[in-house]
Amino acid sequence: MQTFQANTYHLPPLASESAQAMRQIVNGLAKPIASLGRLEELAIRLAGIEATTSLRLRQKTLLVFAADHGVTVEHVSATPKKVTIVQAGNMLAGHTAVAALAIAAHCQVQVIDIGIDSQRTFPKLINAKIAYGTQNIAQGPAMTREQALKSIKIGYATALAAINNGSEVLAVGELGVGNTTTASAVVAACLQCTAAEVVGRGSNISDAKLAHKISIVQQALTRNQPDSTDPIDILAKVGGFEFGGKVGAMLAAAEHHTPLILDGFISYAAALLAQKIAPTITDYLVPSHVSHEKGSQRALQQLGLEPYFDLQLCVGEGTGAVMLMPWLDELAAILTHMNTLADMAIVYKK
User: Fold this and answer.
1) Per residue in 162-193, pLDDT tens?
2) Which reactions fall under this protein's catalytic activity (predicted)?
3) CATH code of 271's domain
4) What predicted TM-score, i.e. pTM, was given to this entire model?
5) Which residues are known catalytic residues?
């Protein structure tokens, strides 16, 4: 394992030959060139990631990293903190939004307690607790540097175990009241912008609470002074344990040529941290939906990613990532069952 310092994590390049071969395959299907739009682009991206045109997309796993945030004592969320552990249990029982969607998408869901502020547990809840939530970022660092590194290593090990157990596609989600506040601080630190430029409404808070949330995020940035060139410093000072877990999962997936689907704003924030560690990481990440948190467009621009759909989702959990998964099944069906232009002896002329 590496130390995850900035620009030191070297990933294998995408398989350009496989990507080009997939481009020729989709261009040769019995349809006008590029008429399947961004679905063709997705096929080419996946071929580059997996280094094959025989895409492996059947076994899908969503990794949900769950943790609490000390900043909730500042009343930045409309949701009480106890909801994190309650929803962890509901998710494992199949009763949250993403759990229901995962049933339809034939996706396994793993919930990892990486820092829930509760002693409660549930069957199948993976215990990787670093601490009972982070510290209040408005008053000081969220965690120690050692804890930040540990969170990344936990995410890496969790993703690697899923891959070794047969997962061919990974996605990341999260549970954690207050995490949009933390995500806003991470994005602001990564992009060197103010809280007002990135803070959104999160759990649909009021105008007054939004103004308060902006002031708390700005206070966290001013008090902690995260180093924008050091992703571990950003994570330790204004991040959350689930952010580190996602970063580790992204690195493991990329190293092992496994596509990883992002969800919304929390995933974007984690991806910005991962990008600082491994600048080419975004080649291996598959965006799903457009988040409507205020800092989303800035984050996506920095990542160079364009999400595939916009349903105005803001529930989190990994819902958008799982909603993209049926597209993968449809893509596999197209590549398997469609005739080719050669089969039909047709030549399109521009």
Assistant:
1) 999 999 999 999 999 999 999 999 999 999 99
2) 5,6-dimethylbenzimidazole + nicotinate beta-D-ribonucleotide = alpha-ribazole 5'-phosphate + nicotinate + H(+)
3) 3.40.50.10210
4) 0.96
5) 317
